[in-house]
Amino acid sequence: MKVLMFGWEFPPHISGGLGTACYGLVKGMAHHSQDIIFVVPKLWGDEEPLADFVNASDITIDYREKRFKKFWKNLTYLEVSSFLVPYLGPDEFKKYTDYTIHDRTDVDESVFSNKFEFSGKYGKDLMMEVSRYALVAAHISKAKEHDIIHAHDWLSFPAGIAAKEISGKPLIAHVHATEFDRSGESVNQVVYDIERSGMHAADHIVAVSQLTKNIIINKYGVSANKITVLHNAVLDASIIKSSYKKKVPEKIVTFLGRITFQKGPEYFVEAAKKVIERDPNVRFVMAGNGDLLNRMINRVAELRMGTKFHFTGFLKGDDVDHMYAISDVYVMPSVSEPFGISPLEAVRHNTPVIISKQSGVAEVLNNAIKIDFWDIDSMADAIFALLHYDGISRMFKELGTEELKKLKWEHVAEKLVTVYQKTLQQIP
Fold first, then answer.
1. 279-333: per-residue pLDDT in tens?
2. What's the CA gap between 231 and 346, in Å, rounded?
3. Domain boundaries, the chain
4. By mean pLDDT, which of 81-90, 180-189, 304-313, 395-404 is the weakest?
5. 365, 342 in Cβ contact below 8 A?
6. In sequence order, which residues have a C-beta less than 8 Å from that of residue 22 and are 6 or more positions away?
7. CB atoms inside a 10 Å sphere around CB 15
8. DSSP element (H, E) containing 268
9. Hey, do 2-233+411-426 and 251-404 end up sharing a CATH topology, with the first three levels equal?
10. CATH number belonging to domain 2-233+411-426
11. Which CATH class is domain 251-404?
């Protein structure tokens, strides 16, 4: 089976868990000898050769070509506002608007060709890049033979839809997070609309947890029969024995992730204050960047615990491993976490974890302390217990190690192949 897969990032150049999940899934698919064409907006040249990688920045497209006429007629959502379509010069813009007004039926020639340079980042031009990525995807789907299309998250959903429009192959939409996870009820309407379009255009949806599946059903109006839950996994289930040693005598409690509403950093700060009041010989670390970083720094100062609370900024590579290695407790207090791979990585470093009940990983990681994200008293009690009662800490370390053995990407990939096969069988 040949899979045309659209992602937004791939290790070692990643900004979050999406790239890590894509890497694990592709590696698991390679274990089952599946043929993957993996497309990303920008390749850096140092990706592990697990698939036939396609760099969208290298593709030259004639995106007013006649054969794409039906595609353009159906994908009007790409023209929600001017920043969602590629920038055009004065002459090209006039041709484009005339083309749109006349329902795209009176232009037989290509207007112009272009090669787009994607940043592959999440900056101010993100929406423009999402739109351009869809244009390139249409071209790739015509040029590359494939049996099924697989698109990861909203950034790639327009690309997946474009590919389906051109090739007619079935589309799998893989939901790693929703706008409700990222923003609560104050959703970005444009992002929500793209997500919803992708889910309804897909022939089948893969959700990373039952929690995510429920959101898709309740918030996006998708039938439960159309959704399969495939939990994430770990790249390597073996325990990491690090030689890296901490430089301070105190116990260390760590938060590692984006410092945003979704991850619940404010609850971690408030719980830290309660722990320090009971035991001042504890250090707390918040590793990551995000829009709430300055607010968290100010709150730590207000609580007068700046000497016991440290901000590292964004960590990557060996620094992440070192942080896990010197941590005595890892806390993930997410408000809404579709899955959450970081607790599994903490377990690999033999670090006991506390996770919110509002996370997908809570569905598969049984031997962890689970609390409601808002319950800072329970969070503080759990942290204190793991720091001060060796028997409890040792139990969670041992049981967590055994659980990891069941959470392998090759098992996830095997289930995904079954999803592909069933989806293909249902296509007339």
1. 999 999 999 998 899 999 999 999 999 999 999 999 988 899 999 999 999 999 9
2. 17
3. 2-233+411-426, 251-404
4. 81-90
5. no
6. 5, 7, 9, 10, 38, 152
7. 15
8. helix 265-278
9. yes
10. 3.40.50.2000
11. alpha beta
